[in-house]
Structures are given as structure tokens and as C-alpha cells.
């Protein structure tokens, strides 16, 4: 690091002392419990993402192209947590630690973990962008935008996410290579009595010293370029983009709420419409908050390491905390899907064999409200459909809102004209 940065060792030694005094106590306190937290998160997270994939592969769920994004995100998150769990099981001095197969896995993990985590973030971003374009096209049918609510559009968006992730993670893929250091004596730390693996070694034990090192062409410029690229392409830009489009989605939802209130005034209880809009807005806010809380700090640290190399010392000290943020982000999708989609909850129960009554309340998540008067029957049906489709990340199929609104208004006008002519004839 000192050679690459152009700074002498005394500068890094001062930085180590500074960050140790600033963060040491907090880091030590968390590291003592990280071993328990990450195992719980990884096991539960892998099972949760497997359940997401199984539910979204059901025939009813396969009709929605947006579920392609959720399946791809679940695969990325599951891969990240599974490989992280395996990586953390083999510690320094473990008999497998010095084997060639383990150094190959370590190399693959160093490359794959950055790629799949970045891909899950970009998939979230392109899903938000595509969702915005779908809603924009629904509210303005003559906007000239191509049809976005299709499997073709979803596939193109996923390919774009993969390309952007490859650009961001390409320098990291070139950053390591496996080198054989030859046979050497087992490190002393592995043979002392305090080591839990001391029983496997003697003072004369020898192992093959396979290591991961930077390739010979790697320079300070490459090192900084790697940090800058990862920080910008895999962290900061996705955070900013998602925040912008989620803000636009919330704005469109509020406009849809106002339009629905005008069309459905008096046909449904005001409390139910208000609670649905508030619930949708709250869930979108939670998504943005979770995304920013877990990813933005990492992006800032990675980018800062490219600007100031001594920040890398703080990143190494905070390694377990950064891992925790990534694991939380990868584990929370199941909870959000279950909270925001009545259809997902219903299909989850059917997938895993839980018996539940076949009622409208189970399917839609809200009990059907019988119309109070005959003349409000059309309005009530429309409002129920409109309420289901108002969520920006709803897992059910989109409705053509403008077409329905026009049809409803025409029907209402027709009813008024017929009623007026009837009164005149009488």
C-alpha cells in the first residue's frame, strides 16, 4: 500500500493509530458477536431467497415480467450469502486454509461477491426505472414511449444491469492472481497452544503457501482506478439513481391517489383508500431507506479509498460491519415482498402447503366491501382494481388506468343522460 500510494510507512502508521483510537473499541465490541449474527442472517437469508424464487416461479406469478427482476435479485443475494457463509467457515490455521482448492475458492469469492452484489443493486435500479416508465406510459398513452410492461423490456433491462455491473467490477476481476510460494513451515501462530487448530500441526509441519497477490502489471494507478470505479459504478451512482426514481414513483402514486379520490368519491370508505396510499408510500420509503443505509456508506468509503489511501485502513477495521450491511440488504427482500404484495403472501402459503380458505380476503388481502347502493357498483369495482395497481412495485399485473378511467367516465355520463331523459319523459 505504501508503494502504491506514494506515501511513506510513517504516514500509514500514524493513520493506524488514529483509526485505532477512533474506532477500535466499537469494532472490537461488534466483532465479538459478528460470528453469531452473520450465521443467522446467512442461513435465514438463503432460505428466504430460495422461497422467493419458488413462489415467483409459480404459474400465476410468471405472468408478470417484473418478477424476472425479483428472481434475478434473489439469485444474486442467495449466492452472495452462501459464498460468504462458506468463506467465513475456514479461518486462518484451518487445515483447508493452506490447500490449493481453498485458494481457488477464495479467488472466486473475491471476484464473484463484488459482481453479484453490484448486480443485485443495479437490478433494483433498472427495475425502478422500468416501473417508472410503465406508469408514465399508462398515464400518458400518447407519450411515444415503447411498451415497457413486457418480458422483452425486462430482459433488455436485465442485460443492461449486467453490462453496467461488469464495467464496475472489471478492475476487481483483474486485481488478484494465485501464486505458489512453495513449501514452507506452518506459521507459528498455528502451532501455539492457544490456537484451536494446534492439534493438526507440529513445529516441523510444512504446507504449500498458496497466496492471492496482485498481478505484476498492477500499479498505483490501477489500484486507485479500481476503487474509484467500484465506488462510483457499484455504489454511489446506483444509490443516487434509485433515490431519484423512487421519488418520482412516490410523486406519481400521490397523483394517482388524488385522481382515484376524485373518481371514487363516495363509493368506498375514505379510511381504506387513505390507508392504502399511506401504506404504499411508507413501503417505498422503507425501500429507499434500507438501500441508502446499507449501500451509501460503503460507496463513500470505497470512493474515499481511491482519493485517500489511508482510508483503506478504516475499511479493513470496519470489514465485519460493512459485511453486515450487505447481508441485511440481501436478507430483507423477502420481508418487503411479503409486506407489500397480497398475491405473494397467498402464493407463498399455497407453495409451502399451508391450508387456508379460498376467500376473497386471502387472495386480495382485504375483505370485499359490498356496495351500499346499486348505482355505486361500477365505481366500487373500479376503485378496488385501481387501489391494487397503485403500488409502484406491486407484484400483480398492471392495469391500463387511463382506459378504465375513460370507460368509467363515459359510463357515468351515460347513466346521467339516461336518467335525465327518463325524468323528462315522465
From TrEMBL:
<dbReference type="Pfam" id="PF10324">
    <property type="entry name" value="7TM_GPCR_Srw"/>
</dbReference>
<dbReference type="InterPro" id="IPR000276">
    <property type="entry name" value="GPCR_Rhodpsn"/>
</dbReference>
<keyword id="KW-0472">Membrane</keyword>
<dbReference type="InterPro" id="IPR017452">
    <property type="entry name" value="GPCR_Rhodpsn_7TM"/>
</dbReference>
<feature type="transmembrane region" description="Helical">
    <location>
        <begin position="107"/>
        <end position="130"/>
    </location>
</feature>
<protein>
    <submittedName>
        <fullName>G_PROTEIN_RECEP_F1_2 domain-containing protein</fullName>
    </submittedName>
</protein>
<feature type="transmembrane region" description="Helical">
    <location>
        <begin position="68"/>
        <end position="87"/>
    </location>
</feature>
<keyword id="KW-1133">Transmembrane helix</keyword>
<feature type="domain" description="G-protein coupled receptors family 1 profile">
    <location>
        <begin position="48"/>
        <end position="337"/>
    </location>
</feature>
<feature type="transmembrane region" description="Helical">
    <location>
        <begin position="284"/>
        <end position="304"/>
    </location>
</feature>
<dbReference type="InterPro" id="IPR053219">
    <property type="entry name" value="GPCR_Dmsr-1"/>
</dbReference>
<feature type="transmembrane region" description="Helical">
    <location>
        <begin position="225"/>
        <end position="250"/>
    </location>
</feature>
<dbReference type="GO" id="GO:0008528">
    <property type="term" value="F:G protein-coupled peptide receptor activity"/>
</dbReference>
<dbReference type="InterPro" id="IPR019427">
    <property type="entry name" value="7TM_GPCR_serpentine_rcpt_Srw"/>
</dbReference>
<feature type="transmembrane region" description="Helical">
    <location>
        <begin position="324"/>
        <end position="344"/>
    </location>
</feature>
<feature type="transmembrane region" description="Helical">
    <location>
        <begin position="36"/>
        <end position="56"/>
    </location>
</feature>
<dbReference type="GO" id="GO:0005886">
    <property type="term" value="C:plasma membrane"/>
</dbReference>
<keyword id="KW-0812">Transmembrane</keyword>
<feature type="transmembrane region" description="Helical">
    <location>
        <begin position="151"/>
        <end position="170"/>
    </location>
</feature>
